[in-house]
Predict the 3D structure of the following.
Amino acid sequence: VVLEAVRQDGLALNFASSEIRLFDREVVLEACKTYGAALMFTSPDLRADRGVVHAAIAQDGEAVRFASAELSADREVALRAVAQSGWALEFVAGQLADDRQVVLAAVGNEGGALAFASEALKADREVVLRAVGGPHEDPWREATALFWAHPAFKADREVVLAAVRNCGVQLESAADKLRFDPEIAEAAGEQHDLG
């Protein structure tokens, strides 16, 4: 009965008996397949189980926040998590915020995830261009990418132009000298059919 319930809705794991919720790998695995955050309801041992964590982050990359410290510091786990949701970068171990490949994958998925990158990678041109330029599923969610970039990029014409072509609202984070640049302002307006 519990197995069928969690296959329908992984949140049902929260209502299972402690014995099942904490120790029944099969039930927890199935719950995580439909609701990645179900990982929060289980034991430390199952939060350290690579198969269970992979199932959870395949459904919700941000579920990595509930994984064991060892797995949240694992590069392969981090890459899987940020591929599913760039915002998962916030929840992987700190040193991975300085891993160029992990950060590129995260900001390629969600540009605003640049907020959780190391300062060194916020100053990396390729990383910033990927973050601000998309293409992303929802450009409006990317409106903060330029905000988090190193200040030098806010005055970099190429970067700002890429940013506003993706989401005109990013113009607000540009340096003053570029906010009033006619080509950049026009690109921002065209992006939103305002021009």
